[in-house]
Specification:
Distance between the termini: 42 Å
Number of strands: 2
Low-confidence stretches: none
Number of domains: 2
Helix content: over 70%
Strand order of the largest sheet: 1-2
Length: 180
């Protein structure tokens, strides 16, 4: 996709720069992900706040739906007035996500095909081209986890998956705790 190319090239350049600093492909990917999260944090915060306002307004929306159940036109007018009164933008939950999508898709493409997007003058490009394996915590980052042979070799991948699941559950718990 042509729309992703500028994002992918920028992310590839940033990945190679971080790699030149850390000399670890795994740490470079982790730091790059943090940098991208910091850059898009304002959009994420805006999306979260908008989602929270929409959740807070659900009781009012249900009341309006009961009140105007037979008249869709009046329901739409009443909901638009309520949105305006409460400062809610119905697209505020979706628009930041749509803006973030090309960035995340580009990151995925760079990590999937790094040699296509990393400058050929980079140390990382040469290491990817020459190296038979780039490891991070005993995981070969150049092969898919499904191709790893043996359960002992899969343990780091399983630990990483468990870590991702636990942090996602913790994050979800924190969000729902604040909504109660």
């Amino acid at each position: 996709m042509a729309i992703l190319e500028p994002f992918a090239l920028a992310i590839g350049f940033l990945l190679s720069y971080v790699y030149d600093f850390t000399l670890s492909y795994g740490f470079a990917i982790a730091i790059l992900t943090v940098i991208i999260n910091v850059i898009i944090f304002p959009l994420t915060l805006r999306q979260t706040r908008s989602t929270k306002r929409m959740q807070d307004a659900q009781s009012d929306i249900k009341k309006l739906q009961k009140q105007y159940k037979d008249n869709k036109e009046e329901l739409n007018k009443a909901m638009a007035a309520m949105y305006k009164e409460k400062g809610i933008n119905p697209l505020g939950c979706i628009l930041p996500l749509i803006i973030q999508m090309p960035i995340w898709f580009a990151l995925f493409r760079v990590l999937r095909e790094p040699l296509s997007f990393i400058p050929s003058t980079s140390v990382l490009f040469k290491d990817l081209e020459v190296s038979t394996s780039l490891t991070f915590f005993n995981m070969d980052l150049q092969i898919p986890p499904s191709e790893v042979a043996g359960w002992v070799d899969r343990v780091p991948y399983l630990i990483l998956i468990l870590f991702v699941i636990l942090t996602a559950l913790y994050q979800q718990q924190q969000i729902t705790k604040k909504n109660r």
